[in-house]
Amino acid sequence: MLNNPPRFLVHKCGEMRVAILVSTDEGMKEEIMVRYAVTPLGALAIAAIAALMFAAAPAAVAQEEALKIELPQPYFGGTPLDYFGENLEERSYKPREPYMAPAGATNLAAGKPVTSSDPDPNYGKLAFVTDGEKGYQQDYLVELDTAVQWVQIDLGQVSDIYAILVWHFHAAERVYFDMVVKTADDAEFTENVQTVYNNDHDNSSGLGVGKDKEYVETYEGRLIPLADKGIKGRYVRLYTNGNTSDETNHYVEVEVYGQPAK
Ligand SMILES: [Ca+2]
Ligand SMILES: [Ca+2]
Fold first, then answer.
1. Dist. CA 87 → ligand 2 center (Å)
2. 56, 77, 93 — which closes off a domain?
3. Ligand that comes closest to the CA of residue 214
4. Are residues 114 and 145 in the same domain?
């Protein structure tokens, strides 16, 4: 795999080596492409040809690709948000950049079982969290009780997790408080527990202090980037503690991109 441009090494004796660095399971390795005894001019010529060949070569075999994320229709209208928190992220009105993850990642959460701290939602069903419907309409919304509540998804097997994407509710400008996201190998969250997002700066939910930002909900959902974090787990649990409009907690959809762990 040509991960790096060729390097041209001309030795004092007039021998030239054209080498490339390739990445292998053992790490970076130098592979010699050409080794010639040449005049300095000849060395330059070979270097130029090799550079041209490299430039013309097809791109390295893809190890990563952009996640294929289906976005719902945006909602226009509603009351502008009147909330300024110290920890509120500055809003970006640009579309999110494509997110690169190891090739072959899929939404492991699709159709998977959902449990919750509130097994009897105010309205909607827990199954809505993983049913693929992400519209802003209330028909797609599950509303959980007030105070700290969580939903939990069982991916079915321990998996490599590259990104978690969550839509709480996007038919209004809202910020959900104390959003904490954890992964674990067991449903009780005692084994291999990892906190992958926490924006509870004052520990008001009692799950620990987090440094992540609060943000305003949009149709793009919130993508938690984990591709380079080496996160493995079977269960994903997401907490919130009310929002800027009321004290209840909402979900439209949660997606978990990754692959079953090898
Ligand atoms: Ca849904
Ligand atoms: Ca808080």
1. 10
2. 56
3. 2
4. yes
